[in-house]
Amino acid sequence: xxxxxxxxxxxxxxxxxxxxxxxxxxxxxTRSRVISHPRKVAGNPDRRRAIPAGAIESLWTAPGGxxxxxxxxxxxxxxxxxxxxxxxxxxxxxxxxLETLADWRDRGWLATGIDWRGQGGSGRLGADAVTGHVGDxxxxxxxxxAFWADWTREAPGPHVIVGHSMGxxxxxxxxxxxxxxxxxxxxxxxxxxxxxxxxxxxMHTVARAMTRxxxxxxxxxxxxxxxxxxxxxxxxxxxxxxDRYEDELWWRSQRPELVMGPGSWGxxxxxxxxxxxxxxxxxxxxxxxxxxxxxxxxDQLVSWPAIxxxxxxxxxxxxxxxxxxxxxxxxxxTDAVRDRAxxxxxxxxxxxxxxx
Length: 356
Fold this sequence. Notes:
By secondary structure, the protein is of the alpha/beta class. It has helices at 14-23, 98-106, 137-154, 166-176, 200-212, 235-238, 242-254, 265-278, 304-313, 335-354, and strands at 2-5, 56-61, 67-73, 82-87, 109-114, 159-164, 184-188, 291-296, 317-322. The chain has a 9-stranded mixed sheet with strand order 1-2-3-5-4-6-7-8-9, sandwiched between helices. Helix 3 crosses helix 4 and helix 5 runs antiparallel to helix 8 (265-278). It is globular.
């Protein structure tokens, strides 16, 4: 494991250059900056706009040599209750979830977060530095399987996976394929279907056609009228909490290598293919890992009906439903929503792992 920094280093240090030049292909790491002192914001800014004290940012080498960025937060005192591995969504980076990782650390867990290959601080796979692309979701499942094998050897058990959106999809797929075997799994707004007006099979056909009439690495949707800026409507699909939404933009300004825009047509088509494979008869029914799903009927990005249908097929699942009070990023919502979600996670883990 190559340590990037105990705390974030000033740009142009030898270690910073090594991470950019050797491990993160097609990224925009050359635009790094020094992080300024976080301003005071709602909640606890020390958990959201600064790397927590004692956290270790490092690089893990995946099969084939690609470097994956990770962060590890150990309990501040005493032994760990167990390990939680957090898997972010499409276009995400672990800085968005520092608050949550720190909360789990304070609850006694070793909390680890990673950036998927091709996004966040783990480089790019597309033709430019901002479009999210992947050859096949199988590549991500393979990375997760290899990381899980290494992580479970070093992290104390029990071992828990928490996946948000695409991360939830990949966690569930890896579990159904026997690539990971968590003691408990938590899926937050899992990507089990896209929200849309057309039937999924038809949308998949359109996406497949788009990969054949042009470069599959090209963006599948417009980002903004101003290049490099998220569209104004984006916030209203993610969270009701203005400050937590601004946290993401703040980190993008301080670590420009994290910036990512639309997914590629290749990502869209492979996403449909992966979701349809996961929904095939018998796949979910055979998955027995104790699972908690947190999802919102108001989600504008992933399909609530698809999530509810999947929950009905899983043999060992608890589904917690949120309504119009929550958008897609439940763990980055207003305190009322986020606190309810964290309480549900605490109760689930206590029941499944502690028998409480």
